[in-house]
Structures are given as structure tokens and as C-alpha cells.
Write a structure and sequence with these properties.
heterodimer, A: alpha/beta, Oxidized Rhodanese, domain 1, two-stranded antiparallel ribbon, 18 helices, 9 strands, B: 0% strand
Amino acid sequence: MFPLASITALGKVGLAIVEILIGIGFAVGLEVSGFSDSFVLTGQFYFRNGRVIKAMFTAIVVSMVLVFGSVALGILDYDVIWVDPTHLWPGVVGAALMGIGIIIGGYCPGTSLVSSTALKKDAWFFVLGGLVGTFLFSETEKLFHYFYNSSDYGRVTLMDVFHLNAGAVVFIMVVMALVVFWLNEWAVNKLKREDSQPYATPRWAAAATVVVLLVAAGVWAIWPTWQQRWNQVAAKQAPLLEQRQVQVSPEELATTLNKTKPLQTVIIDVRDDYDYNLFHLRWSRHIPLNALESAVPELKAIAKETPATVFMIVSDGEAQATEAWKILAAYKVPNIYILDGGLNKWIEVFGEEDLAEGKIMEAKAAGDQEALDYYFEAALGARYRSADMLADPDNDEIIEKIQDKFEPKIKIKGPSGPAGGGCG
Amino acid sequence: MTAKTSWFQKLIDRPRKPYANPYVGGVILGLSLFFSLLLTANGLGASAIFARINGFLVNLVAPHHVDTVPQLIKVAGGSKNPFNNWITWEVIGVILGAFASSVYFGRFKPETPRGPKVSEKGRWVMAFFGGMIFLYGARMARGCTSGQVLSGGATLSAGSWLIAMVMFAFAFATAALVRKLWN
């Protein structure tokens, strides 16, 4: 799978050659579009021409459709490629300065390198000024260090913002780009400026529009569901379930929660509201099964921030948790486990005192596997002794008793893939 | 009495061809960006080379100072070579591609593109200050038109789309305020 496969195969020298070729393509794309000339480039902002919008949005649409088409087909791993992290307010302020700078300066950094090479003298001054600006930034950054590092949302995508799958977002972005193209053409023609000669006849434009829309709709249509993703990884992952290598006993979970080893345990409770309110483990996060898929980016962000994170999926028995495990495995969330026997077994092991006090009563009547085997005096949530092992005064004693009584299953796997990238 | 023209003069004298359809230029850019993400996991970049040249120059003049500035430590701290990065190779490609394309299409000419009401020197001064403002902003936003708008736009980064919109809004607003520069 790309890009790890090509990075490994190419090696250092191969990658350098590929980067040179990519740079050549980048420069040719900018040069033939007219961006080695500041007068042509700024023409967009007076609608003397529509070149910047045409070339930039075409570039975005083409690469976006190819990237997400490749992701949908399982060729490209979206989790590994560089996606600019979001730093909201420094981003907005920086963008405002860039908007001012492109009009005053007539270039942006990429086009200034191309124009400098094409002997445009103003571009040489832009590059010089750019170096001074970079120098000033590195020297003054300490004055607003806090601001520069504020509003850090990490790797947030439009899919996370709008809670849509990437196929749908790609389609919407393509439709939006087509609307922007049409408005841009209209504005340039309306103002009848010198460079408004259309390159394509309306018939060609209509044909291109239809083709682009069809391709984008295709990406949306083939965007894989979690079941399809699971089928791709099932050969490797299903045996772990069958051989019970990921089912962690209540004793091991309790020990892990208590141990001061550098391990973060995130308990994910995937049951519905009713059962969750009756009884849940303290510190658990409630993500009902039907909301789990949209929580995947957040869980991945946690795993990236703290690689030593264990995700422990919990349900009444094991059926729902196993389903949830498949969803997370399909999206390649690392270090995921299931509570062996679910909360029913947890209460069986640790609920002695709650049962004695009558807060929890046995009710093994339901033949349905995926239900609580107990009655509860009230919906106390996590306010049971057995729900909060850490608060138990006899904690040490309990841990002492159980700590050798299980076969440990939890193994932490580190992150894989390159960490850097982008505009570093 | 025909003086032999130098090879450099021959490159400059090639007849100027019109620019291509920008949609075609966009497809070339889009393919370059796609292959960059597919093969190397990186997008396209440009402002980063300014940071690395800056780190290199400061390191030449005041090597101890580098280790006190967070922005410089990243690129040239300790024994780091500021050019030991993929961006260096990409920019070498950019210069090669720009040279080939501008020569081939007869646009490799020493000249100063400018608005009709602006002198050549005036344009140079504006370009200098514009470059200064732009790169200050690009460092603040952690990427420029290529790193944020193109690469972040194509990979659907939320922050990059916000940056793209704010940047275009400010560019159109500034353009309206300084009409005389370019008209």
C-alpha cells in the first residue's frame, strides 16, 4: 500500500529523484498557467483574467479526486499522508497577511521561485523580501509564542467537521468548485477585460463538467463502508478474535487500570443509554455502537498523541463489543481489546460487595446473551464499588489477590509510518 | 558585422508564446501533487525553503543564536543541516522545471512585470515588501499557497480550507484598495 511501499522501495536516492521530478511538474504547471508573471497572476484579483482560480481549483480537484479515489480502492493509506494540522487563529492571521502580501508583492513563494528562474526582476525582490520576512518571523515569534501555538486542533479534516464520509465531501467540494469556475468565467466575461478570451467552447466546458461530476460521484459511490474495510483486514484480524487473543479478562483490566506503568487505558462503553445509566465503569467513555464510526478520527488522534494507549471496548456481554472491535479494526485503530465476558463477568468477579449490599441483584433469566444479567436497585451509573476499583479502600488487597490470576493479553504496538512532512 | 550572440542571449531571444489554458496548467499541478502524496506522503511546499535558507544564513553568521530561537532550532539547531530535507530536492526540481518551461515557451526574459502606473523601481520596492509580508504570514500559518491551500485543500484539511478562504478574501479586498498598483 502506498505511500509506505514506495518510500521503502525508493530509498533515499530514489525519493530525492522523485522529489526533483515532482518539483519539475509543479514548476511547469505554474509557468504554463502564467504565474511566472506578477501582472498575469494579480490579474485574477481584478478579473482581468481568471487564471488563479482556474488553475488552483483544478489542481485541488484533480489531486483530491485521485487521492480519495486511491484511498477508496485501498491503494493509498490516508492515515500516513501529510494532512496539514489545524492551528485556527494563527492560521487565520497568517492567511490574512498572505492575502495582503500576494497583491502587494505580486507572487506567492512557489511562483516567486519560478519567476525568479524565468528572470523576472520583481520576483528576485520578492524572494529577498521573503527571506527578510522569514527572518523577522523567527526572531519575533517568541513575542507571541503562546498565540502561535494556540488553537491547536491537530489533524482535523472536513469529514470531521461535517460528519460526512470522505466520498461525500469530495463530491460536495467538486460541485462547489464547478460553481466557482462558472462564477469566475462569468465575472471575467462580464467585465470584458483583455484576457477574457475563453479557451473552451461551451460544449467542451459542459462535457468536462459532466465528466468531472461523474468521476466525483464514482468516488462517493465506491467509498467503502466499515464492513468492506473489515473484509479487507479480516484475514489478519479475525483469527485474533477467534483465538481469543484480544479478549482481556476483568482481572487484567483492573490490574492495568491500577498499575502506574506508562499506559493509558481508554474504556469505550458501546452500549445504549439505558444500560449505560444502570451500570458502567468509572472513567469509561460512552460511545454507543451506532456513533462509533464517527468517533474513529478522535480515537486515532488520542492514539497518535499517546502511543501507549489501550482501547478497551466494553458491553454487557461480548457480542456488541466484538462488533465494535471489528469497526475499529477496520479503520486500523491501534491496540484495541475487548473486555472478556463483558460487564456481566466484571460484576461476577468484582461485584461481591454490591451484591451483598443489595445494590445489584442477580437475574439470570434473560436468555439473550447481550443483556445485563443483573437487576439494579437504581440507575447509579458508576457509583458502585465494583464500578470504581481505584476508589475502593481495599484496592491494594484486591489487586494483590488477582494480579497473577490471568493470562496477560495486552501488548502495545508502536506507531508506524513517517512522522514528518508538509511545510516544515 | 554580425556579432556572435552568446548562448544566453539566444535563450532570451526565443519568441514569446502565449500562456496555456489555466485548466490544463491546473491538471499538471494536480497530477504533481497527487504523485507527491502517493509516492512520498508529502504534499507540495515552497515557503519551507525560505525558512531553511534563513536557518542556514543565521547559522553562518551567529551559530549560537540559532540554538536560542525555536523557529531556527527546528531547521538548523545543533549539527542539523538545514537543507537535509525533501523540500530541497523539490525546489531543485522547481528551478529546473521553471527554467525548461520558460525557455521553451520564450518567456525566459529579464523584465519587470508591473501595472501601467508603476515604475520599474517602484515595482521592485513593492515586491520586496510584499514578499516580506507574505512570508511572515506564511510562517505564521505554517504553510503558503502550495503547502496549505493546494496540499491541505486536496487532502481536505479543515484548517487549510479556512486559510484558503481567508487568504482569497484578503487578496480581493487588498486588490480593491490598491487598484493603481496593477491597473
